[in-house]
Amino acid sequence: MSLVEVDEAFKTFPSRQRGGDPVRALRGVSLRVEAGETLAVIGESGSGKSTLGRAVLRLLDLDSGSVRLDGVDLASLSPKELRAKRADMQIVFQEPYESLNPRMSIGAIVAEPLQIHRSDLGSTEIRTRVHEALERVGLTGNTAARLPGELSGGQQQRVGVARAIISQPKFVVLDEPTSSLDLSIRAQILALLAEIQQDLGLAYLFVSHDMHTVEKVSDRIAVMYLGEIVETAPTLDLFRSPQHAYTRTLLSARLSADPREKHAYKAFQGDTSVRDAVPAGEQG
Amino acid sequence: MTETTPTTPETVLDVQGLTVDIATPDGVVHAVRGIDLAVGRGEILGVVGESGCGKSTTIKGILGLLPPNATVGADKIELAGHGDLLRTPTKKMRHVRGRRIGFVAQNPFGSLNPIYSIERQFHELQKAHGTKVSKKESREIAHAMLDGVGIVNPDRVLDGFAHQLSGGMAQRVVIALATTLSPQLLIADEPTTGLDVTVQAQIMDLISGLVRSEQRSMLLVTHDLGVIAQYAQRVVVMLDGKVVEHGRVEDVMVDPQHEYTRKLISSVPKREELHDVIG
Amino acid sequence: MADLQLAPSRAAVLWRTAKEHPGATLGGVFIVVLVLWSLLGPLPYSSAATDGSASRQSPNGTHWFGTDGTGGDVFSRTIDAARVDLSLALAGAAVALVIGVPLGLAASTKGRGSQRIVRALDAFQAFPLLILALALVTLSGNKLYMVVVAISLQNIPRYMRLLRSEVLSLRESRFMEAATAMGATTPRLIFKHLLPNVWGVILVQTSLTIANSIVVLSSLSFLGVGVSAPTPSWGSMIRDGAGNMSSGEWWIAAFPGVAVLLCVLAFNQIADAIGDRTARSYR
């Protein structure tokens, strides 16, 4: 049994434009995440990767298919049981500032999962753990008194990480956790996430559009395209011998920071390059 | 470092000692603190740096697009065939932008007027710059321009509106608009940030093709070292409103001299490092 | 857990806001002085006193705002009217707040019930509300509590609409999603995450509501409904003085009119300052 098991997940959203076709965000997605590993889900906009990240946490309900954590089907849980289960599964968002309540102090934000799930802890114990969590993500204890707006983007994302790990989850969805950050900050956050994973034995589902990032952090990669996983492979294998034509297109679109490695972009029939050349109303 | 200074035949844009001071309620911020830039004909000059380094402020200063609380100073901002932009009155700058300098911003939907059809935006652009064209001629020009940026069905796009376009398509339209009046210099501010990677590769191929084929010049501002390494010929690295390193891309990106440049380049994940971090 | 609380002290925030918005500060001082003076006195004359020998005097040393048709002191009556006018306006706004906010929250859920509430609201607001208020107060036999009811009826839909639009956009925000992902219960989502983020706009709306209530109240008493003689109110004073305007005795109607104007201005200024403060504290 794997830690996370997704089977035949389907999800369709009504069209945003009047009279448009419904958006089929997930079209039969199945995946496994083992305890302690990082599975990256890579795809471009409209691939359904963010929908998948939320469906795995049951932040949205699937049309059909199942998600199991520790063998427990999340759809079978009552609202109360599901809330309790959320201590084991957490999420870090792409937008660090937007994901923090602007009216709450950093301390209150990080303390919240404990207040929800650990009613057995006294306020002194909660405070100690909040300070530990903040130090764990490289922030000083006195950050607790500040408001989200007073921190830099990198610091805000560290708060997001502290909040995600304080309830000691087994599984964390990382939804593009570094894509809104500057390059040097990005490297620090990735290193922090890797360190935390080793210490706590966490499993990550790393949702990303960036091949460079995914290459560095993942054990395995699942490539999503138009609501389907077209290829799943160990990271090294995927880069060495991509099997699906779309994976090859994605790899060829990477721009190396070394000018000696010239890229040669190869478009792939039926991919975004073609969609891109058709007015949005005709896409589908 | 630049013993083989690329002897570009002609300098199209020559900026020396550019400073931008911004007055805020908490005092004056020195956003740009004396930078020099020169863009040669047929060349893409990359300006790279992290957020807050002043790279966007720099190009807005050159274009005269800063808000009134900003003060631009420079020894000169010389545009070949026109003169000093710093001494160009605000009214005339409107004609410089569009006719002599084409601008491509990060968010194409911010550059397109949501309530005008794409065709009308081409027409308005030409009218605004005093080109006397009939609607028919304007449409023909627009059609050719869209065709030139790789849009498959220009007629459909011309009759449509911005919100009907995907991000990549909208950016192609913006590039077509920016090059309609054949400016010799293009300035692009993060032109592919926010686009999908496959679309980014296509747009950058398009831009570099436009620069090369017409012997135009381009000032390309980005935070993406991959874009610089693959498309620019020379690069300027900015930090805290100053240039810390500049030179040919092959030199700077392969053998960076300044510590900050080294740090920037090393934070891009490299293939060799694969899994070293996590083990 | 001092460090788990909000960071800047409230007094400090208030002081900074006051310095940055002199109009609102002035308005606030004006309202406080007016309320205290009307409640505690002393007034130069009793507001009920009449003096047939001194009727319709223009403003002078003994009667600063002049006297009205019965020889009452316009100054004393204008100040005294604040007691009943402002307290009724505040009460109306408070009732609207207490009822409108929970109803607004109920109207911003996803279910079909919320759609119905919104439609009922549309129908209700299609009524000419001033006439409704007039009818209510008249039919009740000029009971003052009905004036409060009438004012709150006018303002409850505004609170509901405001809450609904704010909550609908906040519900989609990342931090609400984060709280859901954390396992927060619905009451926690509402009281910890939603309400603190709409509190600012609620305060702005309340200030505007008070200003609006003062106008409604004055309109009612101008029409002879609600507050009745001998209790002075600005609306009835304006009505009493309106007839004298043509004969040049402007002061009888003008001073209570200016009082209404200044109060409305003051509450609008305060609303502006709160709005500005709220918008900026996100940064």
Give your account of this protein's structure.
The complex is a heterotrimer of chains A (284), B (279) and C (283). Chain A has 284 residues and is of the alpha/beta class. Chain A has ten helices and ten strands. In chain A, the strands form two sheets. Chain A has a six-stranded mixed β-sheet with strand order 6-7-8-3-9-10, sandwiched between helices. A four-stranded antiparallel β-sheet of chain A has the order 2-1-4-5, with helices on one face. Helices cover 34% and strands 22% of the residues of chain A. Residues 270-284 of chain A have low confidence and may be disordered. The two termini of chain A are 36 Å apart. Chain A has one domain: P-loop containing nucleotide triphosphate hydrolases (Rossmann fold), CATH 3.40.50. In chain A, a hairpin with a 2-residue loop joins strand 9 and strand 10. Chain A is globular, with a radius of gyration of 20 Å. In chain A, 48% of the residues are buried. With 279 residues, chain B is α/β, with parallel strands linked by helices. Chain B has a domain at 1-91 and 217-273: Rossmann fold, CATH 3.40.50. In chain B, 38% of the residues lie in helices and 25% in strands. Chain B has helices spanning 55-63, 90-99, 108-111, 118-128, 135-148, 154-159, 167-179, 197-214, 225-231, 249-254, 259-266, and strands at 11-24, 27-40, 44-48, 70-73, 76-79, 83-84, 101-104, 185-189, 217-222, 234-239, 242-248. A six-stranded mixed β-sheet of chain B has the order 7-8-9-3-10-11, sandwiched between helices. In chain B, strands 1, 2, 4, 5 and 6 form a five-stranded antiparallel β-sheet that branches. In chain B, helix 4 packs across helix 5. The longest helix of chain B has 18 residues, at 197-214. The radius of gyration of chain B is 19 Å and the shape is globular. The model of chain B is unreliable at 1-6 and 271-279 (pLDDT under 50). With 283 residues, chain C is mostly helical. Chain C has a single domain (8-280), classed as MetI-like fold (Orthogonal Bundle), CATH 1.10.3720.10. The radius of gyration of chain C is 22 Å and the shape is elongated. The two termini of chain C are 24 Å apart. Classes of the chains: A alpha/beta (284), B alpha/beta (279), C mainly alpha (283). Chains in contact: A-B, A-C.
